[in-house]
Write a structure and sequence with these properties.
The protein has 174 residues and is mostly helical. It is 60% helix and 0% strand. The protein is extended, with a radius of gyration of 29 Å.
């Protein structure tokens, strides 16, 4: 284990959270997505291609993480490809694990759920930003549905029940 890895693993979850902040995992996921985008050839650099490439990296690393039986540094980095994309995503998963409170036990499945939420939130942001920058932020106007009801005149006032005076009539007499 390198001195830098030891430096991080020697910290408590609270110390890591204090150092990296609540956005620590999100930051690494964003770096992974940025590396995916930059890694695409110029002629293929579009949102759909980037989403497909990001999903391949995500699925590959989630499969490795799901196969971990006993958490250990060796298990966390098993089958790690020498690509920026894989390294950033795996770091995000490891930081998530390390920031989770140790009291009460940590669950590897929780890491997958948290990282999946962060990943999906970032992909949703990509789609929103893509829309803003490719359409100028204008949303297409929605077609108004045609009404099938016939237009009617204003409803007629209801008659008071026989023997009862309406409130308006009673007020007028006073």
């Amino acid at each position: 284990m390198s001195w830098e890895a030891y430096r991080w693993t020697a910290k408590t979850p609270a110390e890591l959270f204090h150092t990296l902040g609540p956005h620590g995992v999100d930051h690494l996921v964003r770096q992974y997505l940025d590396a995916v985008w930059r890694g695409l050839p110029d002629e293929q650099r579009n949102l759909d291609a980037a989403r497909r490439a990001a999903q391949e990296v995500f699925d590959r690393n989630m499969k490795v993480w799901a196969a971990i039986k006993k958490p250990s540094p060796e298990a966390f980095f098993q089958n790690l490809l020498p690509k920026d994309t894989d390294q950033f995503l795996r770091q995000a998963m490891l930081v998530c694990w390390m920031m989770m409170p140790r009291a009460g036990g940590r669950d590897l499945g929780d890491v997958r759920k948290i990282v999946t939420r962060v990943y999906q939130r970032n992909l949703d942001g990509w789609a929103e930003d893509n829309e803003a920058f490719t359409t100028g932020g204008r949303k297409k106007p929605k077609a108004k549905p045609k009404s099938t009801r016939k237009k009617t005149s204003a409803p007629k006032p209801k008659k008071a029940a026989p023997g009862k005076k309406s409130a308006a009539r009673a007020k007028a007499k006073k």
